[in-house]
Specification:
The complex is a heterodimer of chains A (about 300) and B (about 170).
Chain A lengths: L1 H20 L7 H13 L2 H36 L4 H27 L9 H43 L9 H4 L26 E3 L68 E3 L7 E5 L2 E5 L7
Antiparallel strand pairs in A: 1-2, 3-4
Helix pairs in contact in A: 3-4
Chain B lengths: L2 H31 L2 H17 L1 H4 L2 H29 L12 H7 L3 H7 L3 H11 L5 H8 L3 H22 L1
Helix pairs in contact in B: 1-2, 1-4, 2-4, 4-8, 6-9, 7-9, 8-9
The chains are: A mainly alpha (about 300), B mainly alpha (about 170).
């Protein structure tokens, strides 16, 4: 058995040597290598090599996507006719991929260079491009997410601005930073109703709009002019009289649970207060017809 | 060493290794890619790559080992690409000979080479490096990027398959 193996090895060795004798490379190999080295040194070749590398990566991607394309085609055949635009899109994509593959396959046949001639540049160019592509994808994703979050919050913010037309700071709701929300002073947050959105605004069923005696709550009148300036204080509590007409609340009609047996003493006011949670803008608290603008102590100079 | 000195040294190394090993490397590549023109391209690319990597090679033996490894890797790339091309191009009519037909016929004059062509790529690489390149198992393992055990396994399987093909044909 061993001698037979040796015989085959000798036969193989002789056959390979004989076949190799018939292979004679061209005599201009060194010139071609030098030409390639010279063209490699020129800065313009960086772009051509990058294009070649892209071409090679495209071919590799095509190979990897081939089962997916075939699977999609099979699925399309099984599902039957598609709606017009979808069918047009599918056929366009299929034609694009097949044309690309054929063009690459045919184009490389006549070319002088085989694939993978990116050489030493590929060693650093590929990872750099891969990392930059990953970073670009992450950045685009973050930007899109930020944009989506902004569009979700901004409409409500606009509503906040429009619900207080009498306020001198009506525009503050639209221009304030919508990401920082905080309860104003003196207002507690109640859990939202099942149909309400929590982060937007909260209808407080029974919040007493009591004027706070803090000096920073209202604009301080000049000395001695306490009786001359009519301060728009809100008197009474919101639980006192249920007003039948809906207020300017942006929310849909809050379900009033007024019981007729109480005879006017409702537990929940339909004229609910819309309290925006805003940190920077002064809070606007509406109670019936009166509007009180209070400033947080931190904003007072 | 300055950049210019490295370049000059690399140019000299390319010239020296070319005059001594270019032919054998082209023949080695031709056994792998089954096409002389492509084999030349592969070897020339490998020389260019070696020139670029000369700063860390700086040794003729290392450079030759690098060249062999580069030739094998690039030959694999060519075969992979050729597989894609064959898959995507429409089949030519049977009476139309392809461009590589003449070169392949040259290589297939021997029944052994023809049987060698029917082997899987890795087994063919192992046999060519072993019996044409006269490399040791460790060198083959280094060039192919596999373990010595894998080299033994590939070689044994390739020899068994080759023997079966030759006995069947004879």
């Amino acid at each position: 058995m061993m001698t037979q193996d040796r015989d085959y090895e000798d036969v193989l060795r002789r056959a390979l040597a004989a076949a190799a004798e018939s292979i004679e490379p061209g005599g201009d190999g060194l010139q071609r290598i030098r030409h390639r080295l010279d063209s490699r040194r020129s800065p313009r070749s960086v772009f051509s090599r990058f294009a070649e590398w892209l071409d090679l990566q495209g071919t590799r991607l095509l190979v990897r996507l081939d089962p997916l394309i075939e699977g999609t085609r099979g699925a399309l055949r099984r599902t039957g006719p598609l709606p017009g635009p979808l069918l047009a899109l599918a056929s366009f994509l299929a034609g694009l991929f097949s044309r690309r593959g054929r063009r690459r396959a045919g184009g490389h046949r006549g070319q002088a260079s085989p694939p993978g001639r990116l050489g030493a540049a590929g060693a650093w160019l590929k990872p750099v491009l891969a990392v930059s592509a990953a970073v670009a994808i992450v950045v685009v994703g973050v930007v899109i997410l930020n944009h989506e979050t902004g569009t979700l919050i901004n409409p409500t913010n606009n509503n906040i601005g429009t619900t207080s037309p009498g306020s001198s700071l009506s525009g503050a709701g639209t221009t304030a930073n919508s990401k920082r929300w905080k309860l104003p002073l003196g207002v507690t947050q109640s859990p939202p109703a099942p149909g309400q959105r929590q982060n937007v605004s909260t209808v407080l069923p029974a919040v007493a709009c009591t004027p706070t005696p803090k000096p920073s709550a209202t604009a301080t009148p000049p000395a001695g002019g306490a009786t001359a300036t009519p301060t728009p204080t809100v008197s009474g509590t919101a639980t006192g009289t249920p007003t039948p007409q809906p207020t300017e609340s942006a929310l849909p009609t809050p379900t009033p649970t007024t019981s007729p047996a109480t005879g006017g003493t409702a537990t929940t006011t339909p004229a609910a207060m819309v309290v925006p949670y805003e940190a920077d803008a002064p809070a606007v608290v509406e109670c019936g017809a009166g509007t009180k603008t209070s400033k947080t102590p931190s904003q007072t100079p | 060493m300055t950049h210019a000195a490295v370049e000059w040294d690399a140019d000299r190394a390319v010239t020296a290794i070319y005059s001594e090993h270019y032919r054998s490397l082209v023949r080695l590549a031709a056994f792998l890619v089954r096409d002389t023109a492509t084999a030349e391209e592969v070897v020339q690319d490998s020389f260019v790559a070696m020139h670029g990597a000369w700063r860390r090679l700086r040794d003729t033996d290392k450079a030759l080992s690098y060249l062999r490894q580069s030739v094998v890797n690039r030959s694999r790339s060519v075969l992979r690409h050729r597989m894609v091309v064959d898959k995507n191009t429409p089949k030519p009519p049977p009476d139309m000979p392809s461009a590589e037909h003449g070169a392949i016929i040259q290589l297939e004059r021997s029944a052994v080479v023809s049987a060698l062509r029917s082997l899987p790529d890795r087994q063919r690489e192992a046999l060519v490096l072993r019996y044409y390149g006269d490399l040791s198992e460790a060198q083959i393992a280094s060039v192919m990027g596999i373990s010595r055990g894998a080299v033994k396994s590939h070689t044994a399987r390739a020899m068994a398959a080759l023997r079966a093909v030759l006995e069947r044909d004879s």
